[in-house]
C-alpha cells in the first residue's frame, strides 16, 4: 500500500492529497530525466508531462482523456500546498472550484479524487517505463 492510500485510510486527507501529487511529479521527473538531464525547478504537472514527452506514451485516441486527468490534477495540486494549513487548502480548492457540489468533508473528497488520478497516472507511467 502506498503512503497516499495509507494516509487517506487514516483520515489524513491533507497528507494524502499532497503525497498523491508528489508521486506524479516524481514519476514525470524520471521521464523528464530521460529527455533532459538539467534540473528544472518548476512543479507544474501538465508542463512536466509535456516536457517529459509523457503524452508520447499515450495512444492518440486516449490523449484527450489523459490530458484531462493531468489537467484536473494540475488544478487541484500545487507543490506549495505543503506550506498550507487545511483551512488554506480548503480556500484554495474553493477558489479553483474543485469542491463545488461536494457534500461532506471537502478535503476527503478532494484527496480521493487526487489520489485516484495519481494512481492512474503513475500506474500508466510504471507500465510504460518497462
In angstroms, what is the radius of gyration? 15 Å
Percentage beta strand = under 5%
Shape: globular
Biggest beta-sheet profile:
none
Write down how many β-strands occur, each being a DSSP E stretch of 2 or more residues: 0
Order of helices and strands: HHHHHH
**Helicity, in percent?**
55-70%
Structural class: mainly alpha
Low-pLDDT parts are none
Mean pLDDT: 91
Task: Please tell me about this protein's structure.
With 130 residues, the protein is mainly α. It has one domain (3-125). It contains 6 helices and no strands. Helix 4 packs across helix 6 (106-129). The longest helix is centred in the C-terminal third of the chain and has 24 residues, at 106-129. It is globular. The two termini are 21 Å apart. The mean pLDDT is 91.
List its salient traits.
single chain; 130 residues; mainly alpha
Secondary structure layout:
Blueprint: H1 3-9, H2 13-35, H3 45-51, H4 63-76, H5 86-95, H6 106-129
Quick take:
Helices cover 65% and strands 0% of the residues. It is mainly α and 130 residues long.
Amino acid at each position: 500500500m502506498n503512503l497516499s492510500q495509507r494516509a487517506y485510510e487514516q483520515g489524513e486527507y491533507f497528507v494524502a492529497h499532497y503525497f498523491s501529487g508528489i508521486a506524479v511529479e516524481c514519476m514525470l521527473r524520471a521521464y523528464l530525466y530521460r529527455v533532459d538531464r538539467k534540473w528544472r525547478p518548476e512543479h507544474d504537472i501538465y508542463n512536466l508531462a509535456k516536457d517529459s514527452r509523457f503524452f508520447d506514451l499515450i495512444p492518440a485516441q486516449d490523449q484527450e482523456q489523459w490530458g484531462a486527468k493531468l489537467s484536473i490534477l494540475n488544478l487541484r495540486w500545487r507543490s506549495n500546498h505543503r506550506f498550507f494549513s487545511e483551512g488554506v487548502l480548503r480556500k484554495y480548492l474553493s477558489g479553483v472550484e474543485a469542491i463545488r457540489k461536494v457534500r461532506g468533508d471537502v478535503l476527503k473528497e478532494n484527496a480521493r479524487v487526487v489520489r485516484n488520478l495519481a494512481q492512474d497516472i503513475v500506474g500508466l507511467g510504471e507500465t510504460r517505463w518497462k
